[in-house]
Amino acid sequence: MKQYNQIKMKYPDAMLLFRVGDFYETFGEDAIKASNILNIILTKRGKDSPSETELAGFPHHSLDTYLPKLVRAGIRVAICDQLEDPKLTKKIVKRGVTELVTPGVSYNDKVLNGHENNFLAAIHFEGKKAGVSFLDVSTGEFLVAEGGFEYIDKLIQSFGPKEILFQKGKQKLYLEHFSDKFYTYKLEDWVFTNDFAFENLEKHFEVKSLKGFGVDQLNLAVIAGSAALHYLSQTQHDKVGHIRNISRIEEDRYVWLDRFTIRNLELLYSQNEGAVTLIDIVDQTITPPGSRMMRRWMVLPLKDLTPIQERHEIVDYFLQQDDFKSTIENHLKEVGDLERIISKVATTRINPKEIIQLKRALAAIEPIKKACELAEAKALPMVADQLNPCTGLRQRIDREINEDPAIAVGKGPVIADGIHPELDELRDVLNNGKSYLEQMREREVERTGIPSIKIAFNNVFGYYIEVRNTHKDKVPEDWIRKQTLVNAERYITEELKEYEAKILGAEEKIHHLESQLLSDLVLSMADFITPIQHNASQLAKLDCLHAFASVARKNNYCRPVMNDSLVIDIKEGRHPVIEQQLPVGEEYINNDVYLDNDSQQIIMITGPNMSGKSALLRQTALISLMAQMGSFVPATSAKLGLIDKVFTRVGASDNISSGESTFMVEMNETASILNNLSERSLIILDEIGRGTSTYDGISIAWSITEFLHQNGLAKPKTLFATHYHELNEMHLQFERIKNYNVSVKEMGNKIIFMRKLVPGGSAHSFGIHVAKMAGMPKPVLQRADQILAQLEKNHAGDLKDGGKKEISPDENMQLSFFQLDDPVLMQIKEEIENIDINTLTPVEALMKLNEIKKYVGG
């Protein structure tokens, strides 16, 4: 326990798994936590004594079962192993922490998700800017960036790190600008200093300057990167030779997607449990690195025309050439998680079965390379040039490792026969012991003329030769007598003793030799880390493009025509996710959308609830993003000018935990849009101003739209869905605003949703019809009809009557108290109108005023 306490003091904030014999034990508070999380029995040691302590443990071979549960519960786990063989010491066994596993730092396959990177992020704050790094120790990917807090927040939401590091004392600043949903850990201030950062990274990459990586001018990013690397050494992960590169995330290479947009468009995740997201539809990848790259492409769509067109060309080639597609598909199935396997080489954690998987993956590269070389699509021979089958390594693995090796040395044969003479001899000794002894017996029978020689074994003095007394006079002089029995004598020989030593030490020697030979092989494999990482990246790219082709064929997508114009022209566009969720036999109603910066910059879309306005808005953004990822799109045709930013303000969600109302959240998100506009922006606005009173909402929605039209800095393409029919009148004043509505058919008292976008505004919301469909009680619906009729009668600008009264922010109008569209105020109006002031006493007036006050919750 003294030894345990000394080690625990070094890792006070981690759960210490203390190896004792065949068990990992936890003590005290750790044991209580482990018992609750792992559902294992909690016992006590030294009961009713001063040293009483809680105890909980599990067998050491169950580590892979229990460790992931602890890490997923947000626990830092220090694994303390026995560092020497207990047989070789008479003192207490030497122990030490061999690994500190945290949510952001793990190699364990059961902790990691093959479809996602396991990023460790670090943030360095300075003034109003910050640097950020993303490091996946399981793959060796290392990315850095710097910029304003909003940009850093967007990256964090996009990359979804499992753990975030920042400076002690910066917790308030962190929570002010970033989500509190991530697991965080604080490091000492000195880790975030400039000199230490540059020295640390230069030492790791063995360079004199970071210029070669293009990050030497990004001081904040370098400091963040160094903090992540330092954390690895702090968590006992010092074998990081697979981290060979550090790359800058270039903000100007990718489409800007703020965190609201990633959330609102449901690209990677949804706030609704069990909902299908875009990644679920398009991620038909075969390999784990392909799946991880697909997520990256989704949150970082390209905005450079050439690489986008190259991706489209390859997808098109996959669709045109079935033989090519099936060749790539079949061989990609052999690749597995090449990225994580080669990372295990650097950390010497790779097991023999994974080495065979690496060999299979390298073997699959050869036919993929050949197929790409012969392809007619320009970009594919370029991919082939960058694939390296590493033939020498593959041949060495083939020669040295068994075709079906054991999972680890000592669990069965690992090294192939014919590689090491002594190993072959020892195996022969172990496997052919009986036949060797029989051969020796036959030799001795022939030499001595004793027919009844018996060779046997016992625990007292090992192997012996037994001769019956009738033949003991024929025993040769070189036999040594060991034991006399009533009817027989037992002897040993020099050869037998040598053989005994050989056979008894064979297993141990085999274990030692196999470990040594495997270690030599793994060390030599380290030279191939860089080319194999590069292979993994190229294969992941092919995998993603193959997935795009598979989805395009399955879901009937078209190849978008990308250009440098400022026009979005989509014919018969569909929502990629919703169309896959429709009941069997029901077709998705497609729609055309045309937007440009000169004639139809802003489209005002009105229409009933449930008519499909929100789906239409989202599908337009998704089609543009899918195209710039390199995918084909759900439409009959799509001519798309490049977009550089996508902003969405969709739906209403209170941020109660931060004390922000629906309206405050809405205004924050909208302010972010208006402050970051560009010529090539695409803006999706759904029900802006809904979180406040009607006339407040109309005023804000009007002024936002006017700003988007008139600001002079940029003319961003905008789709604006609204219930405020007054906004339909904006097209009379602003030339680039056009009205559309999602049509419905009225059949008596019923409505049929046509879900088709048609020119012109809509005068009704049909909210009461939707309430009826939801099963609202009849009295409520009847009363709602009465109030609606009254409101429509009083409404000045009813479009059905051709009213063209303009709501202009320039008019300083005094709104009549009773013109407000509020049923409570209508009720108060009725009450006041029914009062006979001439007969009212002062007391009755006070009582009536008190009644009216109750209507407004007074």
Question: How are the elements arranged and paired?
Answer:
Elements: H1 2-10, E1 15-20, E2 23-27, H2 28-38, E3 43-45, E4 53-59, H3 63-72, E5 77-82, E6 95-101, E7 120-126, E8 129-136, E9 141-148, H4 149-159, E10 163-167, H5 171-177, E11 184-187, H6 194-205, H7 219-234, E12 247-248, E13 256-257, H8 259-264, H9 278-282, H10 288-299, H11 305-320, H12 322-332, H13 338-346, H14 352-373, H15 379-385, H16 391-400, H17 421-431, H18 433-448, E14 454-458, E15 462-468, E16 480-484, E17 488-492, H19 494-525, H20 529-555, E18 561-563, E19 568-573, H21 578-581, E20 591-595, E21 602-606, H22 613-629, E22 637-641, E23 645-649, H23 662-674, E24 681-686, H24 694-710, E25 717-721, E26 737-747, E27 750-759, H25 767-773, H26 778-794, H27 823-833, H28 842-855
Parallel strand pairs: 1-5, 7-10, 9-12, 10-11, 13-23, 18-22, 21-25, 21-26, 23-24, 24-25
Antiparallel strand pairs: 1-2, 2-4, 3-4, 5-6, 7-8, 8-9, 14-15, 15-17, 16-17, 19-20, 19-22, 26-27
Helix pairs in contact: 6-7, 10-20, 11-20, 12-14, 12-20, 13-20, 14-15, 14-16, 17-19
Q: What is the count of helical runs?
A: 28
Instruction: Please report which band the strand proportion falls in: under 5%, 5-15%, 15-25%, 25-35%, 35-45% or over 45%.
Output: 15-25%
Largest sheet at a glance?
7 strands, mixed
Q: Which CATH architecture of the largest domain is right?
A: 3-Layer(aba) Sandwich
- Report the top-level CATH class of the largest domain: Alpha Beta
What is the SS-derived class? alpha/beta
Assign the CATH superfamily of the largest domain.
P-loop containing nucleotide triphosphate hydrolases
